[in-house]
Specification:
2 domains, alpha+beta, about 160 residues, single chain
């Protein structure tokens, strides 16, 4: 930066560094490849809409909700897979207690893992094959009365 004073150069570099840190934090916080949408759970207690981030890329699926310290109420993350298959998840580097809802391609809940323990490396299995997993704050599935067989509405599912 020829012709620029030391103070101005320092200010420019400082501003640039802050901008880079902001974008890195934003990418980690939202998960690369994730987009905001909504999903609707239809249970015996009615329809419940939840705002979700959709992890569409391999990187977004690998990172998921790791490293986040909180998640707003009524929010979650949707993980989709290429086909219905047995799915395994874990809570490594995940600080937020979660409920994991395993969903078929037809948008039916196949199993629910409630109150997953933060930071645990214990494998959480879908049991029956699943096409997707939706992670919500722990207690959300119970609050909605969510159970196996309930319907999940999102454009990714074919009822």
């Amino acid at each position: 930066m020829k012709g620029v004073s030391g103070a101005a150069r320092h200010s420019w570099f400082s501003w640039t560094a802050r901008l880079v840190v902001f974008f890195v934090a934003l990418t980690i916080g939202r998960g690369a490849g994730a987009g905001a949408e909504s999903v609707e759970f239809v249970t015996a207690t009615g329809a419940h809409r939840v705002e979700i981030e959709v992890a569409r890329t391999e990187r977004a699926r690998e990172t998921g909700l790791m490293y986040r310290r909180s998640m707003p109420r009524n929010h979650g993350m949707l993980f989709m897979f290429p086909s219905e298959q047995p799915v395994s998840m874990w809570m490594k580097n995940t600080y937020i207690p979660l409920d994991m809802i395993f969903v078929s391609r037809k948008g039916r809940v196949t199993s629910v893992a409630r109150d997953a323990v933060p930071m645990s490396e214990t494998i959480i299995s879908s049991g029956p094959p699943a096409f997707a997993v939706i992670e919500l704050n722990a207690g959300a599935a119970r609050a909605m009365g969510l159970d196996v067989g309930d319907q999940v509405r999102h454009p990714s599912f074919n009822p």
